[in-house]
Amino acid sequence: MSKNKTKQEKNDSKTINSPLSMHQKFANLFLIGMFTLFPIFMTDKLFNVRKDRLDFFIVTNIILLFFIMSTYICGIDKELWPKKLFKLSSTDISFVIFFIVCIFSTIFSEYGKDAVTGDQGRNCGLILMSAYFFSYFLISRYLKYKSIIFDIFVITGCIVCIIAIMHEFYADPFQIITQIKEDQQETFISTIGNINLYSAFVCVVLPVAASLLVMSDSLLSTILCSVQTAVCFMGLIVSNSDSGYFGLIAFMAVLFVFSCSNAKRLFKFFLTVFVMLLSCKILYLLSLLCHEKMRELDTLPHTLVFDRKVYIAISAVGFIALILYLVSEKMADKPFPKAVQIVTGVLVGLFILSIGAVFFYFSVIDKTTNLGNLTKYLRLNDQWGTHRGYAWIRSIILFKNGGIKNILIGTGPDTFGPVIKAVYREDMLKRHGSVFDNAHNEYLNYLVTVGILGVLAYISILGTIIFRCVKRSKDKLSFLLVITVIVSYSAQALFNLATPIVTPYLFVFISIGEAFIRNFDSQNAQSQ
């Protein structure tokens, strides 16, 4: 952190090392478990990984709930309960509504058992939703901020990414993927499993590493964070999954707007970009050492790793970073005019909206203009996005034709599989040789399974926590970690699916954000 601390940061420094209550110890231990053991916990390599992570998350939630209830029964920290539990924020209310919709959706579901367990989907049934709900209210009330928790998470994430990099070069010292059928091995990676799910995991870890780099102040922390960011970005490259790049673009846009507050932060942002681009060439050197014996990369990652034109981009970004460093040395921490951040935010928002508008135009209004190579990106059809378009279009049709009950509260949590199979099973087998059990878009999947009320409540959870963190991010930089992770995950979720392997991290960071807000507001109230 900067030597020139804000008043709030000084207040935080006084309370960070204060003794933890029993509730806070349990909440912190839960997070440590999630940030260390959860991403590597396996009982049978990758063959049972989804069930392993589901069991881990649910069991640790039960343990957390048991110990906190026990301390209450024993009278420990008893005076904190009413004050902490029942003062509801806008995010709390959104979460309560989302959970109630899930309950009613399960009760009135035609696939009752499947809605409870999610066995016909990805195990994201009511049981897992209940775990999200209870862990949110416990962590958000009893988490005590310790910066080392995020350091631990990034270190664990780097280990997962290093294993993925080894798999890229057909090195498997832990025998994780060698037992999988040879023709399927390239779709599985590291300790996460499917490459798309692995990219979703990187979209949670990389924002933390990059944010810590942008926020770093000492030379040592800058070097360490640079190494971690490089490892995580190489991990994203070898994922070979396009969804990860949407998460990358989203959180880097947030970091850019945040960094436009002063020259020092802007220098750190361009340093982060420089480190990411440079790490691509580290992969190139590794390919030479391995005599180019590596998994085939898709177009974008292949270009970043092997195209010599990337050196031009590295040089340009490095030059900009150098100029900004020299400027920052003269300006110290002198802030830019507030208008700089506002204009930058508006321009970034307009750019994102324009991309969405172009996609909508060529997918809904103009379906005939020849777009050439851009067709696979800008026009939604059955072939779009490795047949994601087929699932998206059928999802909308299923929602529209579902009747008033299904439109409002859906068919039951994680029941997309039996719903689409009942209507399109033969068509899917004929076209693709397999059947979908997920929309490959979390929002459309929720639209079908928990209806419009569930989707609106879910989006409200994301929107309210981001908005409330942004309001406070000026005074407490750790809010940036929460914002970037939620934005990154939410962006990649447009093209991916929710599972117990990665999605718990979204709700964990939402819980952390709520805990930060409550602690921040409480400290502000005490200082006034």
Q: What's the layout of helices and strands?
A:
Elements lengths: L6 H10 L5 H15 L12 H25 L7 H5 L4 H18 L4 H6 L8 H17 L5 H21 L19 E2 L3 E2 H21 L3 H21 L3 H17 L3 H27 L9 H8 L3 H22 L6 H28 L9 H4 L5 H17 L2 H7 L6 H17 L9 H8 L1 H23 L5 H14 L11 H24 L1
Antiparallel strand pairs: 1-2
Helix pairs in contact: 2-3, 2-8, 3-7, 5-7, 5-21, 7-23, 8-9, 8-10, 9-10, 9-11, 9-12, 9-22, 10-12, 11-12, 11-15, 11-22, 12-13, 12-14, 17-19, 17-20, 18-21, 20-21, 21-22, 21-23, 22-23
Uncertain stretches: 1-16
The overall average pLDDT, rounded, is 90
Helix content: over 70%
Tally of extended strands?
2
Strand order of the largest sheet: 1-2
Short account of what is shown:
With 528 residues, this protein is an all-alpha fold.
Describe the 3D structure.
The chain is an all-alpha fold and 528 residues long. The protein has one domain. Strands 1-2 form a two-stranded antiparallel sheet. A hairpin with a 3-residue loop joins strand 1 and strand 2. Helix 9 packs antiparallel against helix 10 and helix 17 packs across helix 19. The chain is globular and about 65 Å long. The two termini are 24 Å apart. The N terminus is likely disordered.
Features:
disordered N terminus; 2 strands; two-stranded antiparallel sheet; mainly alpha
